[in-house]
Design a protein that fits this description.
Mean pLDDT: 78
Distance between the termini: 36 Å
CATH superfamily of the largest domain: Probable gtpase engc, domain 3
Largest sheet: 2 strands, antiparallel
Number of helices: 3
Structural class: mainly alpha
CATH architecture of the largest domain: Orthogonal Bundle
Strand order of the largest sheet: 1-2
Order of helices and strands: HEEHH
Number of strands: 2
Low-confidence stretches: none
Length: about 130
């Protein structure tokens, strides 16, 4: 949100279309319909591209989700007490212990946990709706 506004501030002659942010939804509206490359100077360029409404990971099986976090790799594959550890609240979880020790970033673990919880909710919804 706001990419075209930034482009217009940096390159006024770009005159990219923009819209106001909805206070009710706390979000912007997509106005950019195609990508365009702008040269800022001899060494710098910037691209204004259409935004994304949503980013999905439906194609990733939840058993492989943790593998998408490279810093988790040393703690996966048998380091947890339980072989089916989801790395959420399970006792003996190697990732939770590594976060407590400061070996992995707790914010990254939180992002993973939110993604895992969403994947589990999605699975429950798919089962109920079929």
């Amino acid at each position: 949100m706001g990419k075209s506004t930034v482009i217009n501030a940096l390159i006024p002659e770009a005159q990219r279309a923009t819209m106001t942010i909805s206070l009710a939804l706390d979000s912007g509206r997509h106005t950019t319909t195609h990508a365009r490359l702008y040269h800022l100077d001899a060494l710098s360029t910037i691209i204004d591209s259409p935004g994304m409404q949503e980013f999905g990971i439906n194609h990733i099986d939840k058993t492989n989700l943790a593998r998408g976090f490279l810093e988790f790799h040393p703690y996966l594959g048998g380091s947890c007490k339980f072989s089916n550890c989801r790395h959420l609240t399970e006792p003996g979880c190697a990732l939770l212990l590594a976060a407590e020790k400061g070996e992995i970033n707790t914010r990254r673990l939180t992002v993973y946990q939110k993604m895992m919880e969403e994947a589990e909710r999605r699975k429950d919804w798919l089962v109920r709706s079929s």
